[in-house]
Write a structure and sequence with these properties.
344 residues; alpha+beta; Heme iron utilization protein-like fold; 2 domains; nine-stranded antiparallel beta sheet; 10 helices; 24% helix; globular
């Protein structure tokens, strides 16, 4: 690394990528002592246009791009979904939703800090995309153009949302303090009573907030509502869902975005350290070594019990969550109930 001491960050990345073409930019940034956002920003004026912080307005325009690939990830799991943006709803300056057969998202704009229109640059391993990062320089969501995307619309959006100051430097902030929970003081019986009174899966997070309990500890004290299973059961779930041609829902999130796939999974591929879905329109990459605990969870709703498989890392962060395909107002598919309750 000492040979790169006097190089600009742009040149450091080009040199590093040339010598380590298999290392992803997210991991390379750590090795270079910087952030992914700062590497991207270093190319401002050549391969990158810095965008204004008008993310709700920008996201309303995403349908103009046509067929794209949306990527959302956390430390342990990557979710890639191809398709078109359909309905984009902006509830406020802070929250938005994308609903459609292909692209399904829940956006938390207060976490979105830096946006870029990125152009093709083979030496830098850049592909044409809209990329959004949080205040810590970590990727929140990326929208990659495909061959049949509307490339003219991309150019238009890049020009219309171009920031007046095209500066390569970013004001990176330290991470917010970790939330402080009341895990040791939760009144378990009252908590379970509230859990049993749930009417909708969307009531779950407000219940956790009411008791100031972390999600993982909530599962530990949930009694019959949660059961820990072996960490390899995610592989069984995906393989069985593929064999049975079952439509499922796959949620992957970070603190700025939730991305959801609804539909079948077909091609399940395990390679050392990873379990993957490698379908034409949906890819999932889950790092097996990061799985610290795996839970089958039951939530009461007005439509009956809803079961999920929830996977956590060693820090208690959820890597990925699986449900059977369902819509509000409909009961869970019996085939899904049978599959997930059979996991051990």
């Amino acid at each position: 690394m000492s040979t790169m001491t006097n190089l600009s960050l742009k040149d450091k990345w080009l040199t590093f990528h040339r010598d380590n073409p298999r290392v992803r930019i997210r991991d390379a940034a750590r090795q270079l002592g910087t952030t992914e956002a700062e590497i991207v920003a270093a190319f401002t004026g050549s391969s990158v246009i810095r965008l204004e912080n008008k993310f709700p307005e920008l996201w309303k325009r995403m349908p103009e791009l046509g067929y794209i690939m949306a990527l959302t990830r956390n430390e342990s799991c990557v979710h890639e979904r191809k398709g078109v943006f359909e309905k984009v709803g902006i509830n406020s300056r802070h929250v938005g939703v994308v609903v459609g057969d292909d692209i399904d998202m829940r956006m938390f704009f207060e976490r979105w800090a830096f946006g870029f229109a990125v152009f093709e640059n083979e030496a830098a391993a850049f592909k044409k995309s809209i990329q959004v990062f949080d205040h810590q320089g970590t990727a929140v969501v990326k929208i990659f153009l495909q061959e049949n995307s509307n490339h003219e619309a991309f150019e238009t959006l890049a020009r219309e949302f171009e920031d007046t100051l095209q500066l390569p430097a970013l004001a990176i902030r330290p991470a917010d303090p970790a939330p402080v929970y009341n895990d040791d003081q939760v009144e378990v019986n009252t908590f379970r009573e509230d859990w049993s009174a749930l009417k909708d899966t969307h009531d779950f997070f407000p219940m956790l907030k009411k008791h100031n309990v972390s999600r993982l500890h909530a599962l530990r004290i949930a009694g019959d509502f949660a059961r820990q299973v072996a960490n390899d059961q995610v592989k069984s779930l995906l393989q069985l869902a593929a064999e049975r041609e079952m439509e499922i829902m796959v949620f992957v999130s970070n603190h700025g975005n939730i991305q959801i796939h609804t539909g079948p999974v077909k091609k399940i591929v395990e390679i050392p350290g990873w379990i993957n879905v490698m379908d034409a329109a949906f890819n999932l990459h889950l790092k097996l070594d990061d799985i610290a605990s795996t839970w089958v969870v039951k939530k009461p709703t007005t439509d009956g019990l809803v079961h999920s498989l929830e996977i956590f890392d060693a820090n208690g962060n959820m890597a990925v969550q699986f449900f059977g395909k369902r819509k509000p107002g409909t009961a869970e598919l019996p085939a899904w109930t049978e599959l997930v309750t059979g996991l051990q």
